[in-house]
Design a protein that fits this description.
5 helices, single chain
């Protein structure tokens, strides 16, 4: 056997072994995390949230399978400002989010708002989201209307805003399933769920502060109109 063939076989054997070890470790990791899924009621303290950190909890998934998470973080603006920011669907500031390449407001149906968004990790796929608002309790429910077109089985959840004095706690819960979902959820480096959610929380914390002036003016104008009426 030539030295070239020997090296080739050795390289392939090493690659196969590393792949086997990675798969075994990954399967063990997925199993251990599944067993330690947190309760939906588990929460960080207010003092912990003051650090600006985003807290991610693994939840029990939908009965159909897939994965689920709860994301909790604090935003340094009043709840009225953050609500207007998060329900401003017909805007282009979302394009400053590094994982979003396209965004379009499609229309409104009663209390439901339809938007289409393209993400960097799924180029060419337009995620058609329906968001239903419950203004009196500052909650919004969302679900993906075209999961098959986006390579998903299902994706839905809700966002709840809670006033913390002049700050606002955001709680986002989502249930979803798609090919490779386990890898995406547990992947600890760039491209995984943790990076996406932590960046999204940080982006929102910074962006709403930068834009809050326009939302405060809007609130002031609405109050003025209301007083005249």
């Amino acid at each position: 056997m030539s030295s070239h063939e020997s090296f080739k076989r050795s390289f392939i054997s090493s690659l196969l072994w590393k792949t086997f070890v990675f798969c075994a470790l990954f399967a063990q990791l997925d199993s251990s995390i599944a067993l330690s899924s947190q309760s939906l009621a588990e929460e960080p303290t207010y003092e912990e949230m003051l650090t600006g950190e985003a807290f991610i909890f693994n939840l029990e998934p939908d009965k159909r399978g897939g994965k689920a998470y709860k994301l909790v973080y604090l935003v340094d603006v009043p709840i009225s400002v953050l609500w207007r920011f998060k329900t401003d669907f017909d805007t282009d500031f979302l394009l400053t989010h590094k994982f979003i390449t396209k965004h379009r407001f499609v229309g409104r149906e009663q209390n439901g708002f339809i938007t289409e968004t393209e993400y960097t990790n799924t180029p060419g796929a337009l995620f058609r989201w329906r968001t239903i608002l419950f203004p009196s309790i500052h909650r919004m429910d969302f679900f993906l209307e075209n999961p098959q077109e986006c390579g998903q089985e299902f994706h839905y959840g809700h966002i709840q805003l809670t006033a913390q004095g002049q700050q606002t706690k955001v709680t986002q819960v989502a249930y979803f399933d798609f090919l490779g979902v386990t890898l995406w959820v547990h992947y600890p480096w760039k491209g995984g769920m943790t990076e996406f959610l932590e960046y999204t929380a940080r982006w929102e914390q910074e962006t709403v502060i930068r834009l809050q002036g326009s939302y405060l003016e809007e609130a002031s104008e609405q109050e003025t109109v209301g007083s005249k009426d």
